[in-house]
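Aim 2 progress update. The chain analyzed this quarter is reproduced below.
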Amino acid sequence: MTDSIEGATAVEIAGSVRSLIERGQLSPGEALPPVRTLADRLGVNRNTATAAYRRLAEAGLVIAAGRGGTRVAAPEEVAREGYSDTALRDVGNGNPDPALIPDLAGALRAVVGRPVLYGAPVVDPDLETWALEAMANDLAPSQIRVSVTSGAADALERLLAGSLSRGDAVAIEDPGFLTGIHTIRVGGFTAIGVPVDDQGMTPDGLRRALEQGARAVICTPRAQNPTGASVSEERAAQLREVLARHPYALVVEDDHFSLLSARPFRSIVPMTHRRFALVRSVSKFLGPDMSLALVASDPHTAERLGMRLRPGTAWVSHLLQRLSLSLLTDDAARTQIAAAGERYASRNAAFCRSLAKNGVDCAPGDGLNVWVPVTAPARSVSDRLKRRGWLVRAGDEFRVISEGDDTASRRIRVTAHALTDADQHALAADIAAAGG
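Predicted structure tokens:
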């Protein structure tokens, strides 16, 4: 159906292709005519045809592959975190333990009764005061403002949409956070994978991404998902040195594990950086259904974020804000959160000891999961474990780009903290038998 493409301007040609795609007359993966061929057939300048294809690429409708030509984009599914409807033992869900989440009932009774109307401040003033004090010391720049979003995913989406244009490149850890990868793709941005080692995002990888035009960077300074890596002080200094040459690149630090982590928070944001945001969700320690994240950012980024959080449209419920503050400032709840962090760390360490007894050498890292090395391809190991009754995550699911380093293809991500000792031992033995 490429012969049906018509138009005399870039806008008209792009609109014609869009219509053909929407009607199903151009299928995902189908090749479009080369620029020269299309321009000659339509009687337009080649620059006009090039501009039309560029508009389509920026809209995420086509993919330009250099000598491979231009093809209709196919929707890329990204694996999702959470519950799976399966009869298997799900040890790949990445969920916190419900038994370790503070009870919300008492705090909820204490915060109800104060209705909030249109025109009220978007951020609860008491929560804002607490957040400024709690987060300011973790960022080198002195000027910060606090915003509240409906969780970390909402923060990422709004931050990128407020600072970038479709087609812009975003650097993200590879292997990386599934929600971050998904947000980049559905937003129409281009993901550039930055390798991760046991100290987190690598400086050379970040440098290459910025040289390739990345306008934003998403980094997890501790409890990196899926690897469990945390940025060392030396690594943080190296990353700050790289970023210092790009002060207007938006740096988003996703500190998702925050209060549960035993590792210190080390920011990669340089002192003089102009665009940055530190995101701290409460989902891991107060529960995913709380759906709230605190965002500390520079004033410009806060203003762009605030444009998408106006009262009457998308502000976060003040009931949730007051409930979160009540628990964050409650000594008993904070004690329970700290105990939960210790519990996750001890159970992950116990699982790694079980793996070691079965000949699988694995460091526990930080976070809810364990990044387990396997000798066979991860997808094969995952399939074999399914036959033994276990559902794990193959490392391939977390890759940003399919080519290049295939380390993730020899890893599986396991959520084993809620298993009993006996079940951990059984799972470790099955992993070893399946290709660990």
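The first strand starts at residue 62 and ends at 64. Residues 2-72 form a domain with the Arc Repressor Mutant, subunit A fold (CATH 1.10.10.10). These observations will guide the mutagenesis experiments scheduled for the next reporting period.
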